[in-house]
Structures are given as C-alpha cells and as structure tokens.
# Entry
Amino acid sequence: MSLERPIVFGNWKMNGLREDGLALARAVATAPGKGTLGIFPPATILREVILAVEGSNVIVGAQNAHSEDFGAFTGSISAPMIKDVGGTAVLLGHSECRHGLGEADADVWGKAEASARADLLTVICIGETDDERTAGRRDAVLRRQIDGSMPRGSDVSKLVVAYEPVWAIGTGKTPSESDIVSAHAFVRERLDAIFGRESRIPILYGGSVKAENAAAILALEGVDGVLVGGASLDAESFVRIFQAGQ
Ligand SMILES: O=C(CO)COP(=O)(O)O
# Structure
C-alpha cells in the first residue's frame, strides 16, 4: 500500500455530533484533487462517517485503540472493533494521549502491534514539548519515541509517522520552516536506520496547520503531508489545505 502525496489527515479529536460530522465527512469525500485524504472522527460516529464517504477514496480511522483485541477494558475500543465497522486506520500516541492519558512509548508500541494485526494503517504521533525543545532535547525525544513506540516486523507500508511538536498543537504557533525540515530529516534518518531506506514511511507534520500556512508547509523538503486538528473541523478550510498541496 503506497499513499499518494500529499497526505492530508484530519484529527477531529472530541468534536463532531452526527449532523455536523456527517456533513463534514460528505464535503471531504467530494473534495477534488490528487493525494490521500483521511479523517479521524470520534468513535461514536465512526460507522456513520464510513457510510457517508462510501465510494470515495477518503480513509476513515479511529483516534486510539487498545493493545488487546478484547477484554475487560472499560472505555476502550480495539483495533478489531475499528476494522469490524469498516475503519482502515488509527492514530496512536497522540500527544493528548501521551501527556493527557499517560501513554508511554511501550503502550503505543503495544497498540501499534494490535493495529498491525488488524491490518490498519497506523499513524504514530511523536513530538517534543516546549521544555524539551528549549533544553535542546528535541532529537533525543524524537529518537526515544520512534525507537520505543514503532513496532518492528509489521508491514511498513501500513505505517505513517506524524511529527507534532506538542507546543504547536492548538496554539497557532508553528516551528520555523528550517526547524520543520530538520526535524523531518532527523525522523527520516532514524526510520531509515530501523526500517531501511526503501521503507519510505510517510512523515506528516502536525501542529497549527491552517489553510493559510499549508502550501508553505506542504512544499517543505521531507514533508509528505499534514495532520490537521482544529482546521479539519471546517470543510472549507480542510479542503483548502488539501488543495494547497496540489
Ligand atoms: O493535534 C493535532 C492533530 O493531531 C494538531 O492540532 P491543531 O491543528 O489544532 O493544532
């Protein structure tokens, strides 16, 4: 499976009631352009969104998955459940889960193994906090997260990495273009070392991507696409981001 660039994924987070969510999904499904579009609605409307975009090439996935397939894990959903309703992808290791829910690298790894068993496209999110960045530890953190949360031995064509600096998420701040390029180059080097140069795992940038800055970000060397939060909730701005990469 090879994803056509630009890859533009929308993480709806805890947003989207049925009416607005389905209207948004339908608008995304009719967006013209080349590349790969994906949306990650809340689990409550996952099935309905999948049906709403049926017949389009839009990928629909969930925002997290448990490392076990089934069991006594109140409040969780598993990779086979996502697959069962027709989902084909999952976001894992988002900073709101790493920092908000205390997910460690090893937890993300276990979830990624489960996603691979269910044959889902697995988007592993990584990124440094503001303190880590100011302390000059960005690359050390990225290395630790890549080494610690990416499963080995699964189908590399089903893996995507999203570099999302924590301090850029939902803040309107973005790193400088040269910082994005250098972070992506570092991630690429590490992925090559682990998975081989031929793996070509796509690397997305995420954090305050908007219609206004998307063209510049998508044009940067080493950026295969973007993972969009807030701006993915508005059909017009999400479609403009996709079109900025054409
Ligand atoms: O967390 C994000 C996507 O996963 C980014 O969120 P924002 O685009 O709202 O900054």
About this structure: Strands lie at 7-11, 36-40, 59-62, 89-92, 121-126, 159-163, 203-206, 225-228. DSSP finds ten helices and eight strands in the chain. Residues 103 and 179 are 26 Å apart (CA to CA). The pocket of 1,3-dihydroxyacetonephosphate is lined by residues 11, 94, 164, 169-170, 206-209, 227-231 (CB under 6 Å).
